[in-house]
Amino acid sequence: MLSTASKFKTKDLVMVPLFVALMAIGANVTSFLVIGGVPITLQAIFAIMAGALLGSKLGATAMTVYMLVGLIGAPIFAQMKGGLSTLVSPTFGFILSFILIAYVTGKIIEKASVATFKTFLFACYTGLAITYILGTNYMYFAYITIAQAPDGFTYKMAWVWMVAPLIKDLIVTAIGAIICERVYNATKKNARGYDVAS
Predict the structure, then answer these.
(1) Could you tell me how far CA 55 lies from the centroid of its own chain?
(2) How far apart are CA 136 and CA 131, in angstroms?
(3) Per-residue pLDDT for the chain (198 aa), expressed as one digit of tens each?
């Protein structure tokens, strides 16, 4: 599950559909809540966890598969949406960001000499920052260029919409870092047959 080899093992590839399913659940379990033009979802934390637990390459692969499955029409994006029309949605930048945050989160952990809780916390919050920066800026420019922006729409308004999701994500990301660190090190301990130093 924690392989960083250039070629994915069969057991690693089994994790791809699992995280695609988790992303689909996270996209819709709370997406009936909408702030401005932004559905409130749990996608960011599952994308972060994909990178943290699967590694940079497999985590990014899982998020790419999630995006492609949604684009071919499966209703796995927020509010049970899917299809190529999502490409012109102002929130498509968040979907793109999931690939990058899985990769970056995984890479930070892979590069660390010791995978401590601080490492996971830094990696997970870095991933969260990426999704907000990329997703929110994409949303703003999409509303300005290809979508119909609400009256009085400004760059500041785009960020105001993100305040409520940010509060939620700050909390769940901390919880996700705790879970990922424990699962990661427990898996290493079981694989090696001895305790991993904390």
Answers:
(1) 13
(2) 8
(3) 444 444 567 777 788 999 999 999 999 987 677 887 788 899 999 999 999 999 999 999 999 999 999 999 999 999 899 999 999 999 999 999 999 999 999 999 999 988 899 999 999 999 999 999 999 999 999 999 988 888 889 999 999 999 989 999 999 999 999 999 999 988 876 655 434 333
User: What are the structural domains, with CATH classification, of the chain?
Assistant: 10-190 (1.10.1760.20)
Cα gap 194→190, rounded to integer Å: 7
Residue 34: strand, helix, or coil: strand
Residues contacting residue 162 through CB under 8 Å, at least 6 positions apart: 35, 38, 132, 136
Six token digits for residue 188: 């290493």
The answer to whether 64 and 187 have CB atoms below 8 angstroms apart is no
Predicted TM-score (pTM) of the model is 0.87
Cα-to-chain-centroid distance, residue 113: 24
